[in-house]
Design a protein that fits this description.
Helix 11 (318-335) runs parallel beside helix 13, helix 20 runs parallel beside helix 22 and helix 24 (650-657) packs across helix 26. Strands 16, 17, 18, 19, 21, 22, 23 and 24 form an eight-stranded mixed beta sheet that branches. A six-stranded mixed beta sheet has the order 8-9-10-11-12-14, sandwiched between helices. A five-stranded parallel beta sheet has the order 3-2-1-4-5, sandwiched between helices. Strand 2 (56-61), helix 3 (66-75) and strand 3 (80-84) form a beta-alpha-beta unit. It has 756 residues and is an alpha/beta fold. The protein has 28 helices and 25 strands. The longest helix has 18 residues, at 318-335. It folds into three domains: 3-213, Spore Coat Polysaccharide Biosynthesis Protein SpsA, Chain A; 230-275 and 283-353 and 362-461, Alpha-Beta Complex (2-enoyl-CoA Hydratase, Chain A, domain 1); 487-643 and 684-713, 2-enoyl-CoA Hydratase, Chain A, domain 1, CATH 3.90.226. Helix content is 34%, strand content 18%.
């Protein structure tokens, strides 16, 4: 009730007692405040501003809220008593404290959730003819027909009141019935005096408010205690050690990963459980060492499995893996939403995994395979990741690694020492310097946890939530019709001169949209995500700065996996071609370059997303094929005016076709140079354009516009191919180098380019 409606309260006050011998009423209004609510001030004013003149008021402050304390202090009066409970008690205990303070008086307990209106107040005041009556909100007591002790009732909502006596009973317990009729006059059969008399037959002990059970408050308090404990992770000491290692805690990472206030945790109260009779330590395993749930990244739902290194080194326990993590994988796939692993784990919890029950494990990786190509999977390497957890990044779509603190290996240093005798650290064996530079398992090396998580968020911004959605469009403010200025200062016309293709990428695509993937491995090819006219695209570009742009086994692997990821998630592909072909020679053959090259060929051919090919300079041999030449169904294929398209470069062609003629000439060098120019004239793009084997020869400044038009024209692209269960992609395992795992000496002859 608003404080302005004081007249309403005045109108419903009880009339003077009809019995002149009745003792004066000694009434206390009791209020227990547990916290500041939106209408708390209005409610307190309605009680005490208009009632304190007639009744004493007691407020039990059970909130520890300075706003409540301040309000009460400012409005304290002679008839207002404040009882402050510190520490706070449960609901029942707080009520009982107020009742004891009003001992020997009539007590009316009001609840902030109950409106103070005439219908609620009138019967209470009307019943106060007897000073031994006590009424407490929805709790009250009244007599039965055959007992002087009364019957107690607890009601949901307004309190029940005695029914009027019938012809066969003088008193009774029943549902509430107002003793005032619609006109406000005493009811003919249920008068206030009758109710007062009926209640007056009971004793004080019967009608005194009985102690409210504190089970509710105690049990809710226990819940909050459990939550608080598990939210504290492994405790202050272990959290400090985590920070000393230069790492954030799992919950600090989640705050960075998700939009503020959107994280919903599942399984907070989980803990280690007893297996095979072994003792468990639920108090020492908050959340069983893994935090699971979902939240929003730029407004889109993303699921997470985040290992907590402060709890048993983030090891994978039975509860955490088989129930919590499995639940998240199930729901992410069910809802078709991305999933992120924040990896900081010692691997399997050996004390739980040892034994033949290991036969029931392994679902994680099988489910990752099922999710592959359906929902994006990101494995962020924020710490160690050994044994079982190491396969998670191996199957993920994107794997950023934190420099110096992250590592991954199928066996940790201690296991390697025991099994092979090799003395090596986890970092030396599987740090970012290994996997981001040599093995290619890691994608992007980052400086710290903050950069790693920012990288995860950015990567996901280019991909849809699942393979059933298009790639997200983002308005970047970069005009689609913008001409690309300055390419003449980046790309030399001379096909043998080097340049950095990443400068070309940044010039063509939307400003600040370039996100390179695997920048430190297989650097002779550049891959990454970008936007062009707001469209998310995958870019595959040859890099003349490394090996002249020639392709080798690692470059083919790098490109093939990226192409397949883009195709799986409906991200259009743009090929920027300047390729002299594949590396040749005995060394690359031993490494299986045919198989690896076939993998890239397979990926490009298999891709059905919109594909745009721009031949910037060289397009030689099989390099032309794997970079989406005409036979691989590009939706748009164009060339710059100085492009060269041929089975090989002119120098190589002269050496093979005209070798005898050159040797027989009086001036071999002059003859060779003349023949090279003759061949070069036959491989210019105008010949291919004349045969309509390419769509157009364009001004390099028009490249951006052509790419956007090519993507938009293929927006509704559909390709029908013969049904098959799946294709048989060429093997993905690199063969061992000569001598088993030994590397060849650095002095081994280097391979030569196909074009020479």
């Amino acid at each position: 009730m608003d404080s302005a409606n004081g007249s309403e309260l005045q109108a419903i006050k009880a009339p003077p007692s009809a019995d002149p011998k009745a003792p004066p009423r000694d009434v206390t209004l009791l209020a227990v405040v547990h916290g500041w609510q939106a209408d708390a001030e209005r409610w307190l004013l309605s009680v005490f501003t208009h009632c304190k003149a007639d009744f004493e008021a007691v407020v039990v402050d059970n909130s520890q809220d300075p706003r409540i304390a301040g309000w009460l202090q400012n409005r304290a009066a002679e008839r207002l008593r404040v009882i402050t409970l510190d520490p706070p008690l449960g609901f029942g205990a707080a009520v009982n404290a107020g009742i004891e303070a009003a001992s020997g008086q009539v007590v009316i307990l009001f609840d902030p959730g109950v409106e103070l209106n005439g219908d609620a107040i009138a019967p209470l005041l009307d019943a106060l003819s007897d000073p031994t009556v006590a009424v407490a909100g929805p709790f009250t007591a009244w007599p039965t027909s055959n007992s002087a002790s009364g019957c107690a009732r607890a009601a949901v909502g307004p309190s029940p009141w005695p029914v009027c006596p019938s012809s066969s009973t003088s008193t009774g317990c029943g549902s509430r019935r107002s003793p005032v009729n619609a006109s406000g006059s005493p009811n003919a059969t249920c008068t206030a005096s009758w109710i007062a008399g009926a209640i007056g037959k009971t004793s004080w002990s019967a009608n005194r408010i009985r102690a409210v059970s504190d089970d509710y408050g105690r049990l809710v308090g226990e819940l909050h205690t459990r939550r608080k404990k598990n939210l504290a992770m492994g405790g202050e000491e272990k959290v400090d050690k985590q920070h000393q290692r230069g790492k954030l805690t799992v919950r600090e990472r989640l705050e960075l990963l998700y939009d503020p206030g959107t994280f919903v945790e599942l399984g907070l109260l989980a803990s280690q459980q007893s297996l095979r009779g072994a003792e468990a330590d639920p108090d020492g395993t908050p959340a069983d060492g893994v935090v699971t749930g979902h939240g929003e990244i730029e407004g889109r739902q993303v699921w997470v499995i985040a290992y907590d290194f402060t709890v048993m080194a983030g090891s994978m326990g039975a509860v955490g893996e088989q129930f919590k993590a499995a639940r998240v994988r199930e729901l992410a796939l069910r809802y078709r939403k991305p999933i992120v692993w924040l990896l900081d784990s010692a691997g399997a919890r050996i004390q739980e995994a040892a034994g033949s029950t290991f036969a029931g494990t392994g679902w994680l990786f099988a489910e990752q395979v099922v999710m592959s190509g359906v929902i994006p999977q990101v494995a962020a390497m924020l710490g160690p990741c050994a044994a079982g957890t190491a396969y998670i990044p191996g199957l993920a779509d994107f794997v950023p690694m934190v420099k110096d603190t992250s590592s991954m290996a199928l066996g940790g240093a201690r296991l390697v020492k025991a099994a092979t005798g090799e003395d090596v650290t986890d970092h030396d064996m599987g740090g970012s310097q290994v996997h981001c530079y040599e093995s290619g398992v890691g994608d992007n090396e980052v400086a710290n946890d903050e950069e790693c998580i920012a990288t995860v968020r950015r990567f996901l911004s280019y991909l849809p939530s699942s393979n059933t959605e298009p790639a997200p469009f983002v308005e970047t403010g970069d005009p689609a019709e913008r001409l690309v200025e300055g390419l003449d200062k980046i790309v030399p016309v001379n096909p043998r001169a080097a340049y950095d293709v990443r400068k070309v990428v940044r010039a063509i695509f939307d400003h600040e949209s370039w996100f390179e993937v695997k920048p430190t491995w297989a650097k002779n090819i550049v891959i990454g995500l970008a936007r062009v006219g707001g469209h998310a695209v995958g870019v595959v570009a040859n890099q003349p700065m490394q090996k002249g742009g020639a392709l080798d086994s690692d470059a083919a692997d790098k490109a093939a996996r990226f192409i397949r990821m883009c195709d799986a998630f409906n991200v259009p592909l743009v090929y920027l071609m300047d390729v002299p072909g594949f590396m040749v020679g005995s060394q690359v053959e031993k490494e299986g370059i045919i198989r690896h090259g076939a993998k890239m060929l397979y990926a490009t051919s298999e891709a059905t997303v919109p594909k745009v090919t721009v031949i910037m300079r060289k397009a030689y041999g099989a390099g032309y094929y794997v970079m989406n030449g005409k036979g691989y169904q590009p939706d748009t294929i164009v060339a710059w005016p100085f492009a060269e398209i041929s089975v090989m470069g002119p120098e190589g062609a002269v050496n093979i076709i005209f070798n005898k003629q050159v040797e027989a000439s009086e001036n071999p060098e002059a003859t060779r140079a003349q023949l090279v120019e003759t061949i070069r004239a036959q491989i210019n793009p105008y010949l291919a354009a004349g045969w309509a084997m390419i769509d157009d020869v364009i001004d390099p400044a028009e490249t951006r516009r052509v790419i956007i038009k090519g993507i938009e024209q293929a927006r509704d692209k559909k390709i029908d191919r013969p049904w098959r269960k799946h294709g048989n992609i060429p093997g993905i395992r690199r063969v061992a180098r000569s001598g088993g795992s030994k590397r060849l000496p650095r002095s081994s002859p280097r391979s030569v380019l196909a074009r020479t």
